[in-house]
Amino acid sequence: MLGEFEYVLITAAAALGDNAYGAAIREEIEATTRRRCSMGALYTTIDRLETKGLLKTWMGDSTPQRGGRAKRMVRVTSKGVHAAKEFYDAVMRVSRGVSWAENQTGSSS
Amino acid sequence: MTAVAWPLVELASRLLEPDEREAVLGDLLEAEETAWQALLDIFGLVLRRQAFLWKSPQPWFAGFSVALPCTYLLMHVSVSVTATYERLFHHRVSTRWPTGQEGFVLLFCHFFLLMAWSWAGGYVVGSASRRTLWLSIALSSLACAFCLVTFRFEPLSRFCSFLFLLPAILGVRHGVRQARFSFACASLLAVTVTLLMIFAWAHQALWVLNWVLALPAWYLVAAAWRSRQEGRTGPSWPFSPAPLPSPVSVRKKH
Fold first, then answer.
1. What pTM did the predictor assign?
2. Arithmetic mean of pLDDT, A84-104
């Protein structure tokens, strides 16, 4: 099963779709989790997920905004989607009946 | 980020692989991070990459099982070969380095073995620890320093103990570049080395510990065999799934 940060990263990449690359994913993670995401955590997790076949990465185009540097583009594979869904389902199942999840999930009653 | 600080960040990013450096520097520019934060990010990533490398057995194997003991033994052999050469060609006998009654045939045999052992050892170190080579080099240097301090060279030159160095460096270069060679070539090398060692052993001209030096050649056979089984073109670490994957250097641009 995925780790928490792995799930967050896959979800952020999936939400960004064709625009998923290092800086954008990082920004998305920081915005949603309200915590700082280090470059080290981001890129080592991307590598790990790619080794597992859950992500695919390639070097994309460069932009003037980035000083002419290329982006490392990311795409979630079908295996990645399956793993993320499995993690999400597990969190939903384990959260059933707990007080903090009642309002969010609406499935505990 | 200030123009003064950026070169520092670029310098630090040289510790990363080229493709990863490109992506990370671009991300830092896009995020408009401060120089301090950018440096922290880069060093954090480098540390994580290094930590990942040391979790694998390859660097430990290359450093402590190959580089350290092989350097010590090869320095011994280098001096011994030189002592035999001096006795046969210049009739200078070293009492500190007795060479027995070895003739030209055994001298040639030892010289070939020294070259083959050094190259194969270097290859194993280079291929098993491409990105942690500095540890193997440090351990080899340690063994060299130990030998230089403890050996008594007179009347030979201290430089003679480094006969192994050139083929070993060549081996490391080939290993780092994952030079291709076939199973047949690796087997030929290993079998030749073993037969020559048996020949030297039969003539009481081989130190028992020198048998350890045959192992890198057989490692190459195992690596080439594994490569053939997996349909790869170059040899790789024979006992683990992949040889130290490089982050993004092999990925194509779309």
1. 0.70
2. 89
